[in-house]
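Dock adenine; give full complex structure.
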Amino acid sequence: MKKRGVYSPFLNGATSVFRFWYGTILFGSILLDQPEASLSMIKIKKLCKFCDTQVTNCSGTGSCKVECDITAICPHANEVCVSIWRKKDNNVTLETLCYNPAHKLYGLVLEDYNNSKCEMKEKKGMGSEFFICSCSEDECNEHVFFTSSFPFGPSDSLDSQVVSVILVSLVPLLVLAVLVITSFYFYRVYRQHHATSKRKKGPPVDFSDAHAIMMDDEGSDISSTHANNLNHNTELLPIELDVQVGKGRFAEVYRAKLKQGSSAGEQAFETVAVKIFPDEEYASWKNEKDIFSDADLRHENVLHFLTAEERKVQKQYWLITAYHPRGNLQEYLTRHIISWQDLWLLGGSLARGVAHLHSDHTPCGRYKVPIVHRDIKSSNILVNSDLTCCLCDFGLGLRLDNSLSVDELANSGQVGTARYMAPEVLESRINLENIESFKQTDVYSMALVLWEITSRCSAVGEVKEYEPPFGKVREHPCVESMKDSVLRDRGRPEIPNSWINHPGIQMVCATIDECWDHDPEARLTAQCVAERFSDMEHLDKLSGRSDSEEKIPEEISVVDEK
Ligand code: ADE
Protein backbone atom coordinates (compact mmCIF):
# COMPACT_ATOMS: atom_id res chain seq x y z
CA MET A 1 0.00 0.00 0.00
CA LYS A 2 1.33 3.33 -1.02
CA LYS A 3 1.34 6.23 1.45
CA ARG A 4 -1.35 8.73 0.55
CA GLY A 5 -0.46 12.42 0.90
CA VAL A 6 -2.62 15.14 2.38
CA TYR A 7 -6.15 14.13 1.64
CA SER A 8 -8.54 16.96 1.11
CA PRO A 9 -12.05 16.46 -0.12
CA PHE A 10 -12.15 20.27 -0.36
CA LEU A 11 -9.47 20.34 -2.90
CA ASN A 12 -11.93 19.60 -5.67
CA GLY A 13 -13.06 23.06 -6.78
CA ALA A 14 -10.78 25.12 -4.52
CA THR A 15 -7.58 23.32 -5.32
CA SER A 16 -5.57 26.22 -6.68
CA VAL A 17 -6.19 28.52 -3.69
CA PHE A 18 -5.37 25.76 -1.20
CA ARG A 19 -2.35 24.72 -3.13
CA PHE A 20 -1.03 28.27 -3.27
CA TRP A 21 -1.08 28.55 0.52
CA TYR A 22 0.18 25.04 1.05
CA GLY A 23 3.00 25.62 -1.39
CA THR A 24 3.90 28.89 0.31
CA ILE A 25 4.02 27.28 3.76
CA LEU A 26 6.09 24.38 2.42
CA PHE A 27 8.37 26.80 0.65
CA GLY A 28 8.92 28.66 3.97
CA SER A 29 9.65 25.48 5.89
CA ILE A 30 12.16 24.32 3.31
CA LEU A 31 13.93 27.64 3.53
CA LEU A 32 14.02 27.43 7.30
CA ASP A 33 15.16 23.78 7.45
CA GLN A 34 17.78 24.12 4.82
CA PRO A 35 19.00 27.66 4.63
CA GLU A 36 21.57 26.77 2.01
CA ALA A 37 18.92 25.42 -0.40
CA SER A 38 18.58 27.53 -3.46
CA LEU A 39 15.33 28.51 -5.16
CA SER A 40 16.03 26.21 -8.08
CA MET A 41 15.82 23.15 -5.84
CA ILE A 42 12.34 23.99 -4.64
CA LYS A 43 9.68 21.74 -6.09
CA ILE A 44 5.97 22.04 -5.60
CA LYS A 45 4.09 18.90 -4.62
CA LYS A 46 1.53 17.64 -7.10
CA LEU A 47 -2.15 17.09 -6.76
CA CYS A 48 -3.15 13.69 -8.04
CA LYS A 49 -6.13 11.39 -7.97
CA PHE A 50 -5.22 8.79 -5.36
CA CYS A 51 -7.82 6.06 -4.86
CA ASP A 52 -5.64 2.98 -5.03
CA THR A 53 -7.43 0.17 -6.90
CA GLN A 54 -11.12 0.52 -7.75
CA VAL A 55 -13.49 -1.44 -9.92
CA THR A 56 -14.26 0.60 -13.04
CA ASN A 57 -16.49 0.72 -16.10
CA CYS A 58 -13.63 2.05 -18.20
CA SER A 59 -13.38 -0.34 -21.19
CA GLY A 60 -9.73 0.31 -21.97
CA THR A 61 -10.42 2.08 -25.26
CA GLY A 62 -10.74 5.75 -26.14
CA SER A 63 -10.63 7.86 -22.99
CA CYS A 64 -12.04 7.47 -19.50
CA LYS A 65 -12.55 9.67 -16.49
CA VAL A 66 -11.57 7.76 -13.35
CA GLU A 67 -14.30 7.42 -10.74
CA CYS A 68 -12.05 8.57 -7.88
CA ASP A 69 -13.17 11.44 -5.70
CA ILE A 70 -9.97 11.65 -3.69
CA THR A 71 -7.52 14.30 -4.77
CA ALA A 72 -4.35 14.09 -2.77
CA ILE A 73 -1.35 16.32 -2.39
CA CYS A 74 1.45 13.93 -3.13
CA PRO A 75 3.68 13.39 -0.05
CA HIS A 76 6.88 14.11 -1.97
CA ALA A 77 7.58 16.90 -4.36
CA ASN A 78 9.12 14.60 -6.95
CA GLU A 79 6.12 12.31 -7.16
CA VAL A 80 3.93 12.32 -10.22
CA CYS A 81 0.38 11.16 -10.94
CA VAL A 82 -0.09 7.57 -12.11
CA SER A 83 -3.09 5.57 -13.34
CA ILE A 84 -3.12 1.82 -14.03
CA TRP A 85 -5.90 -0.03 -15.85
CA ARG A 86 -6.08 -3.81 -15.50
CA LYS A 87 -8.40 -6.49 -16.77
CA LYS A 88 -8.33 -10.05 -15.53
CA ASP A 89 -11.16 -12.57 -15.87
CA ASN A 90 -13.68 -9.81 -16.67
CA ASN A 91 -12.61 -7.94 -13.56
CA VAL A 92 -11.62 -4.43 -14.64
CA THR A 93 -9.91 -2.05 -12.20
CA LEU A 94 -8.31 1.36 -12.22
CA GLU A 95 -5.62 2.29 -9.76
CA THR A 96 -4.69 5.93 -9.13
CA LEU A 97 -1.72 7.06 -7.09
CA CYS A 98 1.22 9.41 -6.57
CA TYR A 99 4.56 7.87 -7.35
CA ASN A 100 8.22 8.78 -7.58
CA PRO A 101 9.34 8.01 -11.16
CA ALA A 102 12.87 7.47 -9.95
CA HIS A 103 11.67 4.07 -8.73
CA LYS A 104 10.17 1.23 -10.69
CA LEU A 105 6.48 0.60 -10.20
CA TYR A 106 5.40 -3.04 -10.62
CA GLY A 107 8.83 -3.55 -12.16
CA LEU A 108 8.19 -0.86 -14.80
CA VAL A 109 10.01 2.40 -15.40
CA LEU A 110 7.66 5.37 -15.72
CA GLU A 111 8.89 6.76 -19.00
CA ASP A 112 6.15 9.24 -19.69
CA TYR A 113 5.89 11.07 -16.37
CA ASN A 114 6.80 14.41 -17.97
CA ASN A 115 3.61 14.28 -20.07
CA SER A 116 0.86 16.72 -19.29
CA LYS A 117 -1.81 14.10 -20.12
CA CYS A 118 -2.07 10.53 -18.93
CA GLU A 119 -1.68 8.42 -22.08
CA MET A 120 -2.18 4.74 -21.39
CA LYS A 121 0.34 2.29 -22.85
CA GLU A 122 -0.10 -1.42 -22.80
CA LYS A 123 2.56 -3.49 -21.02
CA LYS A 124 2.92 -7.16 -21.70
CA GLY A 125 3.81 -9.90 -19.30
CA MET A 126 2.01 -8.39 -16.30
CA GLY A 127 -0.28 -11.41 -15.75
CA SER A 128 -3.33 -9.49 -16.99
CA GLU A 129 -4.24 -6.91 -19.56
CA PHE A 130 -2.29 -4.01 -18.19
CA PHE A 131 -2.17 -0.35 -19.21
CA ILE A 132 -0.24 2.35 -17.34
CA CYS A 133 0.30 6.08 -17.68
CA SER A 134 2.03 8.80 -15.67
CA CYS A 135 1.96 12.58 -15.94
CA SER A 136 3.00 15.75 -14.13
CA GLU A 137 0.07 18.17 -14.32
CA ASP A 138 -2.25 18.52 -11.36
CA GLU A 139 -4.91 15.78 -11.35
CA CYS A 140 -3.75 14.73 -14.79
CA ASN A 141 -4.40 11.06 -13.92
CA GLU A 142 -8.11 11.74 -13.68
CA HIS A 143 -8.52 11.58 -17.44
CA VAL A 144 -6.80 8.67 -19.08
CA PHE A 145 -6.37 8.18 -22.81
CA PHE A 146 -5.92 4.83 -24.46
CA THR A 147 -3.99 5.30 -27.67
CA SER A 148 -4.76 1.76 -28.78
CA SER A 149 -5.74 -1.58 -27.39
CA PHE A 150 -3.55 -3.46 -29.88
CA PRO A 151 -0.86 -5.50 -28.21
CA PHE A 152 2.20 -3.86 -29.69
CA GLY A 153 5.56 -3.69 -28.01
CA PRO A 154 5.65 -2.69 -24.37
CA SER A 155 6.49 0.93 -24.85
CA ASP A 156 5.87 1.77 -28.52
CA SER A 157 2.64 3.44 -29.48
CA LEU A 158 0.66 2.12 -32.42
CA ASP A 159 1.16 5.41 -34.25
CA SER A 160 4.89 5.24 -34.18
CA GLN A 161 4.76 1.56 -35.14
CA VAL A 162 2.58 2.31 -38.15
CA VAL A 163 4.74 5.24 -39.19
CA SER A 164 7.88 3.17 -38.97
CA VAL A 165 6.32 0.26 -40.90
CA ILE A 166 5.22 2.67 -43.62
CA LEU A 167 8.61 4.34 -43.70
CA VAL A 168 10.49 1.07 -43.84
CA SER A 169 8.41 -0.20 -46.72
CA LEU A 170 8.06 3.05 -48.66
CA VAL A 171 11.52 4.55 -48.43
CA PRO A 172 13.29 1.82 -50.46
CA LEU A 173 10.51 2.00 -53.08
CA LEU A 174 10.82 5.78 -53.29
CA VAL A 175 14.59 5.56 -53.57
CA LEU A 176 14.24 2.93 -56.31
CA ALA A 177 11.69 5.04 -58.20
CA VAL A 178 13.93 8.10 -58.01
CA LEU A 179 16.87 6.03 -59.25
CA VAL A 180 14.88 4.57 -62.17
CA ILE A 181 13.49 7.98 -63.19
CA THR A 182 16.90 9.61 -62.94
CA SER A 183 18.59 6.86 -64.97
CA PHE A 184 15.84 7.00 -67.59
CA TYR A 185 16.19 10.78 -67.77
CA PHE A 186 19.96 10.59 -68.22
CA TYR A 187 19.56 7.78 -70.76
CA ARG A 188 17.19 9.96 -72.81
CA VAL A 189 19.54 12.95 -72.56
CA TYR A 190 22.41 10.71 -73.65
CA ARG A 191 20.42 9.28 -76.58
CA GLN A 192 19.36 12.76 -77.69
CA HIS A 193 22.89 14.02 -77.44
CA HIS A 194 24.16 10.97 -79.32
CA ALA A 195 21.55 11.37 -82.07
CA THR A 196 22.29 15.09 -82.46
CA SER A 197 26.01 14.53 -82.75
CA LYS A 198 25.42 11.69 -85.25
CA ARG A 199 23.23 13.99 -87.33
CA LYS A 200 25.84 16.69 -87.13
CA LYS A 201 28.52 14.30 -88.39
CA GLY A 202 26.37 13.10 -91.34
CA PRO A 203 26.05 14.79 -94.73
CA PRO A 204 24.84 18.37 -94.46
CA VAL A 205 21.12 18.52 -94.98
CA ASP A 206 19.49 21.67 -96.27
CA PHE A 207 16.39 22.32 -94.21
CA SER A 208 15.73 25.66 -95.84
CA ASP A 209 12.69 24.30 -97.64
CA ALA A 210 10.58 21.25 -98.09
CA HIS A 211 12.96 19.73 -100.67
CA ALA A 212 15.49 19.05 -97.99
CA ILE A 213 13.43 16.25 -96.52
CA MET A 214 14.17 13.91 -99.39
CA MET A 215 17.54 12.67 -98.18
CA ASP A 216 17.50 9.09 -97.01
CA ASP A 217 19.50 7.83 -94.06
CA GLU A 218 20.12 4.56 -95.85
CA GLY A 219 21.69 6.24 -98.84
CA SER A 220 18.79 5.55 -101.19
CA ASP A 221 17.18 8.37 -103.07
CA ILE A 222 14.12 8.34 -100.88
CA SER A 223 13.70 10.41 -97.77
CA SER A 224 12.98 9.01 -94.37
CA THR A 225 13.25 12.30 -92.55
CA HIS A 226 9.52 12.77 -92.73
CA ALA A 227 8.68 9.12 -93.09
CA ASN A 228 5.86 7.89 -90.90
CA ASN A 229 4.58 11.39 -90.30
CA LEU A 230 1.78 13.59 -91.33
CA ASN A 231 3.27 16.58 -93.12
CA HIS A 232 2.07 19.35 -90.85
CA ASN A 233 3.90 22.00 -92.85
CA THR A 234 1.53 24.57 -94.19
CA GLU A 235 3.84 24.46 -97.20
CA LEU A 236 3.03 21.31 -99.12
CA LEU A 237 5.75 19.29 -100.79
CA PRO A 238 6.64 20.54 -104.28
CA ILE A 239 5.24 17.57 -106.20
CA GLU A 240 4.36 17.39 -109.86
CA LEU A 241 2.13 14.48 -110.86
CA ASP A 242 3.20 12.50 -113.96
CA VAL A 243 1.12 9.52 -115.02
CA GLN A 244 -1.42 7.33 -113.32
CA VAL A 245 0.13 3.95 -112.52
CA GLY A 246 -2.63 2.28 -110.60
CA LYS A 247 -6.20 2.50 -109.48
CA GLY A 248 -7.57 0.86 -106.38
CA ARG A 249 -10.86 0.66 -104.57
CA PHE A 250 -10.46 4.00 -102.83
CA ALA A 251 -7.68 5.86 -104.58
CA GLU A 252 -5.57 6.39 -107.68
CA VAL A 253 -1.81 6.07 -107.73
CA TYR A 254 0.43 8.41 -109.72
CA ARG A 255 4.09 8.46 -110.50
CA ALA A 256 5.26 11.94 -109.53
CA LYS A 257 8.28 14.23 -109.35
CA LEU A 258 9.28 15.55 -105.98
CA LYS A 259 11.36 18.59 -106.81
CA GLN A 260 14.75 19.02 -105.18
CA GLY A 261 16.80 22.21 -104.79
CA SER A 262 17.89 23.40 -108.24
CA SER A 263 21.50 23.06 -109.22
CA ALA A 264 23.06 25.01 -112.12
CA GLY A 265 19.66 26.14 -113.29
CA GLU A 266 18.39 22.57 -113.66
CA GLN A 267 15.57 21.36 -111.48
CA ALA A 268 16.55 18.09 -109.77
CA PHE A 269 13.80 15.74 -108.60
CA GLU A 270 13.10 12.41 -107.00
CA THR A 271 10.50 10.07 -108.43
CA VAL A 272 7.86 9.17 -105.88
CA ALA A 273 4.43 7.55 -105.91
CA VAL A 274 1.41 9.58 -104.82
CA LYS A 275 -1.77 7.81 -103.81
CA ILE A 276 -4.66 10.26 -104.08
CA PHE A 277 -7.87 9.73 -102.13
CA PRO A 278 -10.91 11.86 -102.94
CA ASP A 279 -12.59 13.77 -100.14
CA GLU A 280 -15.17 11.02 -99.52
CA GLU A 281 -12.46 8.38 -98.96
CA TYR A 282 -10.98 10.26 -96.01
CA ALA A 283 -11.51 7.25 -93.68
CA SER A 284 -9.50 5.02 -95.97
CA TRP A 285 -6.67 7.56 -96.22
CA LYS A 286 -6.68 7.95 -92.45
CA ASN A 287 -6.55 4.20 -91.85
CA GLU A 288 -3.65 3.71 -94.23
CA LYS A 289 -1.83 6.77 -92.89
CA ASP A 290 -2.25 5.54 -89.30
CA ILE A 291 -0.89 2.11 -90.21
CA PHE A 292 2.08 3.65 -92.05
CA SER A 293 2.71 6.07 -89.16
CA ASP A 294 3.95 3.21 -87.02
CA ALA A 295 7.71 3.48 -87.45
CA ASP A 296 8.00 -0.21 -86.57
CA LEU A 297 6.28 -1.09 -89.85
CA ARG A 298 9.40 -0.14 -91.76
CA HIS A 299 10.85 -3.14 -93.52
CA GLU A 300 12.51 -3.82 -96.85
CA ASN A 301 9.48 -5.82 -97.96
CA VAL A 302 6.93 -3.18 -96.98
CA LEU A 303 6.31 -0.08 -99.09
CA HIS A 304 8.44 2.82 -97.84
CA PHE A 305 6.17 5.61 -96.65
CA LEU A 306 7.31 9.21 -96.86
CA THR A 307 4.48 11.39 -95.70
CA ALA A 308 0.77 12.13 -95.77
CA GLU A 309 -0.78 15.40 -96.83
CA GLU A 310 -4.18 17.03 -96.72
CA ARG A 311 -4.51 18.91 -100.02
CA LYS A 312 -7.35 21.13 -98.91
CA VAL A 313 -7.61 23.20 -102.07
CA GLN A 314 -8.17 20.14 -104.27
CA LYS A 315 -10.19 18.44 -101.49
CA GLN A 316 -7.85 15.47 -101.68
CA TYR A 317 -5.82 13.37 -99.29
CA TRP A 318 -2.40 12.19 -100.39
CA LEU A 319 -0.03 9.44 -99.33
CA ILE A 320 3.47 9.87 -100.68
CA THR A 321 5.60 6.73 -100.91
CA ALA A 322 8.55 5.22 -102.73
CA TYR A 323 7.99 4.58 -106.41
CA HIS A 324 8.53 1.09 -107.83
CA PRO A 325 9.13 1.22 -111.57
CA ARG A 326 8.58 -2.53 -111.94
CA GLY A 327 4.96 -2.04 -110.90
CA ASN A 328 2.88 -4.62 -109.10
CA LEU A 329 3.40 -8.37 -108.98
CA GLN A 330 0.34 -9.17 -111.06
CA GLU A 331 1.62 -6.93 -113.84
CA TYR A 332 5.08 -8.41 -113.49
CA LEU A 333 3.89 -12.03 -113.65
CA THR A 334 1.68 -11.23 -116.61
CA ARG A 335 4.71 -9.97 -118.53
CA HIS A 336 7.44 -12.30 -117.28
CA ILE A 337 8.24 -15.97 -116.96
CA ILE A 338 10.49 -16.31 -113.97
CA SER A 339 13.32 -18.63 -112.98
CA TRP A 340 13.47 -20.78 -109.84
CA GLN A 341 15.83 -18.19 -108.38
CA ASP A 342 13.25 -15.44 -109.06
CA LEU A 343 10.50 -17.55 -107.51
CA TRP A 344 12.68 -18.09 -104.48
CA LEU A 345 13.38 -14.33 -104.18
CA LEU A 346 9.78 -13.24 -104.72
CA GLY A 347 8.22 -15.95 -102.53
CA GLY A 348 10.71 -15.67 -99.68
CA SER A 349 10.53 -11.87 -99.56
CA LEU A 350 6.72 -11.94 -99.64
CA ALA A 351 6.68 -14.30 -96.65
CA ARG A 352 9.23 -12.12 -94.81
CA GLY A 353 7.13 -8.99 -95.42
CA VAL A 354 3.97 -10.67 -94.12
CA ALA A 355 5.84 -12.19 -91.17
CA HIS A 356 7.13 -8.72 -90.25
CA LEU A 357 3.61 -7.28 -90.38
CA HIS A 358 2.26 -10.07 -88.21
CA SER A 359 5.11 -10.06 -85.76
CA ASP A 360 4.77 -8.62 -82.26
CA HIS A 361 8.43 -7.67 -82.13
CA THR A 362 10.86 -5.72 -84.26
CA PRO A 363 14.09 -7.32 -85.56
CA CYS A 364 15.79 -5.82 -82.48
CA GLY A 365 13.34 -7.61 -80.20
CA ARG A 366 11.33 -4.56 -79.10
CA TYR A 367 7.54 -4.93 -78.80
CA LYS A 368 5.59 -3.89 -81.90
CA VAL A 369 1.88 -3.94 -82.65
CA PRO A 370 1.06 -6.85 -84.97
CA ILE A 371 -0.72 -5.73 -88.13
CA VAL A 372 -2.87 -7.73 -90.49
CA HIS A 373 -3.19 -6.67 -94.13
CA ARG A 374 -6.54 -8.29 -94.93
CA ASP A 375 -6.22 -7.66 -98.67
CA ILE A 376 -3.13 -9.59 -99.73
CA LYS A 377 -3.22 -10.19 -103.49
CA SER A 378 -0.72 -9.92 -106.33
CA SER A 379 -1.91 -6.43 -107.32
CA ASN A 380 -1.20 -5.18 -103.77
CA ILE A 381 2.40 -6.31 -103.93
CA LEU A 382 5.04 -4.21 -105.68
CA VAL A 383 8.21 -5.60 -107.22
CA ASN A 384 11.52 -4.15 -106.07
CA SER A 385 14.41 -3.65 -108.48
CA ASP A 386 16.15 -6.71 -106.93
CA LEU A 387 13.08 -8.82 -107.67
CA THR A 388 11.87 -8.95 -104.13
CA CYS A 389 8.33 -8.17 -103.02
CA CYS A 390 7.09 -5.08 -101.30
CA LEU A 391 3.67 -5.10 -99.64
CA CYS A 392 1.49 -2.06 -100.30
CA ASP A 393 -2.09 -0.82 -99.96
CA PHE A 394 -2.83 -0.91 -96.26
CA GLY A 395 -6.28 0.62 -96.71
CA LEU A 396 -7.88 -2.42 -95.03
CA GLY A 397 -5.04 -3.05 -92.62
CA LEU A 398 -5.82 -3.58 -88.95
CA ARG A 399 -3.55 -2.96 -85.98
CA LEU A 400 -4.05 -5.80 -83.54
CA ASP A 401 -3.33 -3.84 -80.38
CA ASN A 402 -4.53 -5.17 -77.08
CA SER A 403 -7.09 -2.42 -76.72
CA LEU A 404 -9.22 -3.82 -79.59
CA SER A 405 -12.45 -5.22 -78.21
CA VAL A 406 -14.24 -8.23 -79.67
CA ASP A 407 -16.98 -5.81 -80.77
CA GLU A 408 -14.49 -3.63 -82.62
CA LEU A 409 -13.02 -6.70 -84.31
CA ALA A 410 -16.48 -7.96 -85.21
CA ASN A 411 -17.38 -4.58 -86.70
CA SER A 412 -14.34 -4.74 -88.90
CA GLY A 413 -16.50 -7.16 -90.94
CA GLN A 414 -15.91 -9.26 -94.01
CA VAL A 415 -13.28 -7.30 -95.88
CA GLY A 416 -10.84 -8.01 -98.69
CA THR A 417 -11.12 -9.17 -102.28
CA ALA A 418 -13.54 -12.09 -102.75
CA ARG A 419 -11.11 -14.03 -104.95
CA TYR A 420 -8.48 -14.09 -102.19
CA MET A 421 -10.82 -14.52 -99.20
CA ALA A 422 -10.14 -17.41 -96.84
CA PRO A 423 -13.05 -19.85 -96.30
CA GLU A 424 -13.72 -18.52 -92.79
CA VAL A 425 -13.86 -14.96 -94.13
CA LEU A 426 -16.26 -15.98 -96.90
CA GLU A 427 -18.63 -17.45 -94.33
CA SER A 428 -17.93 -14.69 -91.77
CA ARG A 429 -16.81 -17.19 -89.16
CA ILE A 430 -13.56 -15.77 -87.92
CA ASN A 431 -12.65 -16.55 -84.33
CA LEU A 432 -12.67 -13.00 -82.96
CA GLU A 433 -11.34 -14.11 -79.59
CA ASN A 434 -7.97 -14.92 -81.09
CA ILE A 435 -5.93 -12.36 -83.03
CA GLU A 436 -4.06 -15.23 -84.70
CA SER A 437 -7.24 -15.88 -86.73
CA PHE A 438 -6.71 -12.63 -88.64
CA LYS A 439 -3.12 -13.60 -89.42
CA GLN A 440 -4.33 -17.00 -90.65
CA THR A 441 -6.60 -15.33 -93.21
CA ASP A 442 -3.59 -13.35 -94.53
CA VAL A 443 -1.62 -16.62 -94.81
CA TYR A 444 -4.40 -18.15 -96.93
CA SER A 445 -4.30 -15.16 -99.34
CA MET A 446 -0.50 -15.32 -99.40
CA ALA A 447 -0.73 -19.01 -100.44
CA LEU A 448 -2.76 -17.98 -103.49
CA VAL A 449 -0.10 -15.39 -104.42
CA LEU A 450 2.65 -18.01 -103.98
CA TRP A 451 0.67 -20.23 -106.33
CA GLU A 452 0.48 -17.37 -108.89
CA ILE A 453 4.25 -16.88 -108.65
CA THR A 454 4.88 -20.62 -109.04
CA SER A 455 2.55 -20.87 -112.01
CA ARG A 456 4.85 -18.50 -113.91
CA CYS A 457 8.10 -20.26 -113.04
CA SER A 458 9.98 -22.04 -115.81
CA ALA A 459 10.94 -24.78 -113.31
CA VAL A 460 7.37 -26.17 -113.37
CA GLY A 461 7.73 -27.28 -116.99
CA GLU A 462 5.41 -25.80 -119.55
CA VAL A 463 4.39 -22.32 -118.37
CA LYS A 464 0.88 -21.13 -119.25
CA GLU A 465 -0.35 -17.55 -119.68
CA TYR A 466 -0.69 -15.73 -116.42
CA GLU A 467 -4.02 -16.34 -114.73
CA PRO A 468 -5.04 -15.28 -111.25
CA PRO A 469 -6.34 -17.96 -108.85
CA PHE A 470 -9.96 -18.98 -109.52
CA GLY A 471 -10.45 -17.57 -112.99
CA LYS A 472 -9.51 -14.83 -115.38
CA VAL A 473 -8.04 -11.39 -114.63
CA ARG A 474 -10.97 -9.42 -115.93
CA GLU A 475 -13.56 -11.55 -114.15
CA HIS A 476 -14.22 -10.42 -110.62
CA PRO A 477 -15.85 -13.31 -108.79
CA CYS A 478 -18.30 -12.23 -106.11
CA VAL A 479 -18.42 -13.59 -102.55
CA GLU A 480 -21.27 -15.99 -103.39
CA SER A 481 -19.45 -17.66 -106.29
CA MET A 482 -16.26 -17.86 -104.20
CA LYS A 483 -18.29 -19.56 -101.46
CA ASP A 484 -19.33 -22.21 -103.98
CA SER A 485 -15.76 -22.86 -105.08
CA VAL A 486 -13.88 -22.55 -101.80
CA LEU A 487 -16.43 -23.58 -99.19
CA ARG A 488 -18.90 -25.93 -100.87
CA ASP A 489 -16.44 -27.62 -103.26
CA ARG A 490 -13.34 -27.06 -101.11
CA GLY A 491 -11.66 -26.02 -104.38
CA ARG A 492 -8.16 -24.59 -104.63
CA PRO A 493 -6.08 -23.57 -107.66
CA GLU A 494 -4.67 -26.60 -109.44
CA ILE A 495 -1.15 -27.85 -108.74
CA PRO A 496 -0.36 -30.13 -111.71
CA ASN A 497 1.77 -33.22 -111.09
CA SER A 498 4.35 -31.96 -113.54
CA TRP A 499 5.21 -29.07 -111.16
CA ILE A 500 6.60 -31.29 -108.47
CA ASN A 501 9.38 -32.72 -110.57
CA HIS A 502 11.54 -29.88 -109.33
CA PRO A 503 12.62 -30.40 -105.69
CA GLY A 504 12.31 -26.68 -104.89
CA ILE A 505 8.89 -26.34 -106.51
CA GLN A 506 7.84 -29.52 -104.72
CA MET A 507 8.66 -27.90 -101.39
CA VAL A 508 6.99 -24.63 -102.38
CA CYS A 509 3.83 -26.54 -103.37
CA ALA A 510 3.80 -28.49 -100.11
CA THR A 511 4.11 -25.16 -98.29
CA ILE A 512 1.29 -23.61 -100.36
CA ASP A 513 -0.89 -26.60 -99.57
CA GLU A 514 -0.33 -26.16 -95.84
CA CYS A 515 -1.07 -22.43 -96.09
CA TRP A 516 -4.46 -22.72 -97.78
CA ASP A 517 -5.75 -25.48 -95.48
CA HIS A 518 -9.48 -25.22 -94.84
CA ASP A 519 -8.76 -25.27 -91.10
CA PRO A 520 -7.19 -21.89 -90.26
CA GLU A 521 -5.34 -23.34 -87.28
CA ALA A 522 -3.67 -25.97 -89.45
CA ARG A 523 -2.07 -23.28 -91.64
CA LEU A 524 1.61 -22.40 -91.34
CA THR A 525 2.57 -18.99 -90.00
CA ALA A 526 4.17 -16.46 -92.34
CA GLN A 527 7.35 -16.72 -90.29
CA CYS A 528 7.44 -20.48 -90.84
CA VAL A 529 6.97 -19.96 -94.60
CA ALA A 530 9.84 -17.44 -94.59
CA GLU A 531 12.05 -20.02 -92.85
CA ARG A 532 11.03 -22.72 -95.33
CA PHE A 533 12.10 -20.43 -98.19
CA SER A 534 15.46 -19.76 -96.63
CA ASP A 535 15.95 -23.54 -96.37
CA MET A 536 15.13 -23.87 -100.09
CA GLU A 537 17.90 -21.64 -101.40
CA HIS A 538 19.90 -24.46 -102.96
CA LEU A 539 17.02 -26.57 -104.27
CA ASP A 540 17.48 -25.42 -107.87
CA LYS A 541 19.29 -28.51 -109.18
CA LEU A 542 17.13 -28.94 -112.24
CA SER A 543 16.52 -25.42 -113.40
CA GLY A 544 19.70 -23.41 -112.76
CA ARG A 545 19.69 -19.63 -112.68
CA SER A 546 17.98 -18.09 -115.71
CA ASP A 547 17.13 -14.49 -116.27
CA SER A 548 13.48 -13.62 -116.40
CA GLU A 549 12.07 -13.72 -119.85
CA GLU A 550 10.13 -10.68 -120.97
CA LYS A 551 6.87 -12.20 -122.17
CA ILE A 552 4.70 -9.21 -123.03
CA PRO A 553 6.85 -6.24 -123.95
CA GLU A 554 4.23 -3.52 -124.26
CA GLU A 555 2.99 -1.51 -121.23
CA ILE A 556 -0.25 -2.84 -119.86
CA SER A 557 -2.22 -1.14 -117.21
CA VAL A 558 -3.75 -3.49 -114.71
CA VAL A 559 -6.58 -2.10 -112.68
CA ASP A 560 -7.30 -3.54 -109.27
CA GLU A 561 -10.27 -5.74 -108.66
CA LYS A 562 -12.90 -4.05 -106.55
N1 ADE B 1 1.29 1.19 -107.74
C1 ADE B 1 0.81 1.40 -106.53
N2 ADE B 1 1.74 1.90 -105.77
C2 ADE B 1 2.85 2.01 -106.51
C3 ADE B 1 4.14 2.46 -106.25
N3 ADE B 1 4.46 2.90 -105.06
N4 ADE B 1 5.04 2.43 -107.20
C4 ADE B 1 4.68 1.97 -108.40
N5 ADE B 1 3.49 1.55 -108.71
C5 ADE B 1 2.56 1.57 -107.76
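Observed: The mean pLDDT is 81.
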